[in-house]
Amino acid sequence: MKYKFRGFYHKESSLLYPEIKKWVFGSLIEEPDGTYWIQNGGHSFKVIPETVGQYININDTNKKEIYAGDVLMASIYTDDEGQECTVEQRGSAWIIDYEDSEADCFIVSEFPGSLIVIGTIHDEVTP
Prior knowledge:
Blueprint: E1 5-11, E2 20-30, E3 36-40, E4 43-47, E5 53-59, E6 65-67, E7 70-75, E8 83-90, E9 93-97, E10 106-107, E11 114-120
Antiparallel strand pairs: 1-2, 1-5, 2-3, 3-4, 5-6, 7-8, 7-11, 8-9, 9-10
């Protein structure tokens, strides 16, 4: 299995180049000083460490890749509106955590309903 990560890249503007803000995807490199890089296609991007998330090898109902730190709308029944939850790792399992609820958490790969990515826990950092 190949591991895939994402992180948010932010480069300040300069006299020659405009400001760049974007998600980048690829292999993760962690420097001893705590700097994180995402490498993709021969390019390396220094990313904000808090925004790094691993692809969990599952796509949502709309075929969008799901990463650690994603916010999902999870619906068990076709007629329910769903409930907001986050994806996180506990031990060796990827779980859906309902933060504002007493509901149990689910292992993502065993979730019986639909999952739709609606954002990330980093949306305030990543305009």
